[in-house]
Amino acid sequence: ARLGRSDKNLHDDAVTSGSPISSVEIRELVLRDVTLHDRRSDSPDGDMLSLREGKVEIFPNLPVRLIANGEFRKVPVRVEAIGGTLSDLIRGREFWPVDVVIRAVDATLELKGSVALPFGTSRADVQVTLACTRLSALNQLLAVTWPSLGPYRISGEANLGADEIAVSNVQAVLGSSDLKGDGFIHFDHDHPRWSMNLASKRIDLHD
Known about the structure:
Elements: H1 5-17, E1 28-38, E2 47-57, E3 63-72, E4 75-85, H2 86-90, E5 95-104, E6 107-116, E7 124-132, H3 139-142, E8 152-160, E9 164-174, E10 177-186, E11 193-199
Antiparallel strand pairs: 1-2, 2-3, 3-4, 4-5, 5-6, 6-7, 7-8, 8-9, 9-10, 10-11
């Protein structure tokens, strides 16, 4: 918050007279031109995250809103997120609603559901949807070498627990191939262990 000259004089007068000082209410936070480097990366220059502008809107009794535009590994990324209200966080509600959309290249990732409070608790229930024109469109962003196959779309419900993620109603389409099913991802070993039950009406080996 920034105090103007007249506001500062009023503040000084209030302190001198012993009158109560009004609290400061922050309704918007803005960050611009922030760059972060990860020197642990295998990349010679490290993975770079550049935030052109990030804005958080916090209005009384309204959902908290985040909008951020930047680049990761020189790929433009936009994030839009809507959560619950600030009072939900302060009052210690059990869950906080989330609605997140991340766009990068031709890919869109959507997360909608709820996360447990306080943040950091290993509990969440979200609907996940990822869609893109080609697998290879994400190569630079994820530092992978996927083939140029597509379009594809993956959706499902994820329930995050302390040491596993339960996934259900999974539906995946890649080109003319499809998969449906459910399963678990366990984290009780050095590497994640997948357990899935999948079915398909059509699998094209060219996909």
